[in-house]
UniProtKB/TrEMBL annotation:
One of its GO terms (biological process) is regulation of transcription by RNA polymerase II. PANTHER family: CYCLIN. The lineage of its organism: Eukaryota, Fungi, Dikarya, Ascomycota, Pezizomycotina. It comes from Aspergillus campestris (strain IBT 28561). This is Cyclin domain protein. InterPro entries: Cyclin-like_sf (IPR036915), Cyclin/Ssn8 (IPR043198).
Amino acid sequence: MSTQSGLKYLSNALATAEQLTTSSSFVDGIAPDLEASVRYAGVQLTQAAGVLLRLSQDTIAQAIVTFTRFWIGPEGGSLRLYAAKDVSAAALYMTAKLSFQPTSPRSIINVYAFLLSRDVSPLWFVNSKGAPSTPPAPEAYTLTEGGYLAQRVVLLRVEAIILRTLGFNTHVALPHTIALTYLQTLNVSSPDVSRRVFEHLNAALLSPQLLYVTHQPNALAVAAIYLAAREVGVKLVDVEWWEVFDVDREDLGFLVVAMRSIEGFARAEKEKWSGRALPMTVDELEAEVERRRMMEEGG
């Protein structure tokens, strides 16, 4: 991976063009659109689990970036070998452990058992019927002690695999604090702009263009500010202020378009998988690949 110049702790290792076009899953025969769908669901799963575990958004975002990085390039993880749900859980557990909010394997495993339960999950890509109107009984999703111990082994094993795959580089710089600094520099005091900036930065974690591994935090912060100011109607300085923050017009334009497209992508994914559960395990993924193969042969 290549790294832009800048302070070490304010920048990230970025994916190369080759890594973005040739993932391990693609090499193993997984269609790019299916990989994108599973990766998108995995990010949502990580976000939901982090919220239920009452982790900070910083910790959740770092776990999502780690989850995303794991699948990148031919040297990354393949969906034919590793379940998206297991990588999500391990990335969140590892990131929380390295933060000021460590959480136990049991807490992680219990939350994921709930979120992945077909009958009680509030997640649309797991439970197509929607979340139940009344709180489900714990028996509907609680693991047995044997089930917990088996999942604990998987959690710790996948954590080690993630670390090895990433070369033990767990550093993730986020754009949120940088964006606040830039807003102060631009003398923007509108709370509506600040809120929209953070909404765009959090939504960008779901981007199919993988914005957090293709652009540095300063560029993401600038694009979110530019877009938020336009949406709220706050006028910024007349000069090309983004150049002061080391972002050129071309990158800014790309990021703004990409951030605007996320809502449409999310809507399309929900329609695409309407009434069907997204494959979050290796067996489910293989079943989906086989279903597509049979449809192609029959069509």
